[in-house]
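Convert to structure. Protein one:
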Amino acid sequence: MKHTTFARAAVAAAITVAFIQPGLAAEDKAAGKPVTITIMQQNQSGESGTATLTPLEGNKTKVEISLKSAPAGVTQPAHIHDGGCASLDPKPKQGLDNVVGGKSTTVVPVGLQQLIDGKTAINVHKSTDDIKTYVACGDIRAEGGSTK
């Protein structure tokens, strides 16, 4: 009987080790899927698209913005802000690389789960000359509100 209990404990330990990759917490593995958010036009800009947020090691997130109908040759600042698009905190939480030709890719030093839990949004401005005009925004949310 002692031998059976020991064998069961050894099998359980082996299964646990098999599912935890060295260097990554179980939570990090569960949060490993990218989240795609919808970016909607604002101020009748006609600009809309998506942002794909991919969790990276070291509590970082890659943010890839892709907008349709973005003006050619215009540099459009983009940021992550606290709040949602309907109640955006005007002070940026995290800067993103400018959107040029409808595209931007940035690695931010913030984990994806933290962005989702913090109720944040991505917004895009009309241009560096007209920073006060928002042309697109998307609330950062995962289905069900969590990547876990």
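Protein two, convert as well:
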Amino acid sequence: MAACLVVALLASGWAVAHPGAPGPSAASPTPSASLAISPVVSPTPSPTPTPTPTAAPTGTPPPVYPVVDSCDPSGVPGAIAVPGTGSGKSGAFTLHVPILEYHRIVPVAEAGDSLPGLVVPPTRFSAQLDALENAGWHTITLAALAGDLAAHTKPPARSFVITIDDGWEDGYTYAWPILDHHGYVATYFVIAGRIDRPGFLTTSELQALVAAGDEIGDHTMEHVSLSQQKGTLLTYEIDAAAARIAQVTGVWPESLAYPYGGVNARAEAAVAACRELRIAVVEEETAPEKTVAGSSPGSTAKPVAVKTARPRMLVAVETWANRFAVPRVEVQPSMTPTKLADLLPVLEAG
């Protein structure tokens, strides 16, 4: 009884000495009391979150960049220049690294008026990569392939390249999470003049992709066939696009994809003249058209020249000599995961 009275008097005295302050409470125990009456519970471990590219908040106005019609790295101060832009080692050296070509990774219902053959649903894309990962395949960027060619270095077995053309925003919203899930990287070929336009990759998304280890490549300023261009317009489409990508991402592009596969000797020379570019890809390798003379049976008409269908001859071959016209394989939505997994070893074998 005496002990209880002493405790009550002490508590009353504390309250008088500290008017307005909360007194001891069961809801707010002192640290020592908490440790004495509460068992120590270890926090439940949570999985490490997967790194996710971070884009700028919606509504942020896109930056405005001046046009730099030059591949000179000094034209974009601060952008990382391409290392080792000189010639490769002498002597024959050939690689057989499969290069896959995609355009849109998006549900068909969201593809608008895109050609059906260019639209691979995310579920199909994911299943294709599942099959390749299960078969032991891993990715490198096209820039890494160029570096291997220059150094005469063979990448690890079962290396392949994923390229995604045109710079649609679904390359970030749909394709990137699937790539990241598999630990894969890709080379995104963007149309530089469409960056930050509705439906296309934004500045912040491109920067996030670069931070995640992906490569951003040159796909010209306005997606024109380079084989149809001449003079200053030809160099503008290549050089100004490369400089714009350097402005946006802080890294000069090392690779280019010819829009529509339009390549000839003039276009190839113009790409090679941009010293920051080290490699360029065409749509796909095909056998040449055959022209034959003939007429229908029983016809009195003279034989006429007709063109046969061009059989596709899918190959994977990269040399220093052909590095500005490297073939790649277009992956259509009809390509099953099993067929793709069976195709890559054939391409790698040459």
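The longest strand covers residues 159-166. Confidence is low (pLDDT under 50) at residues 1-51, 285-311.
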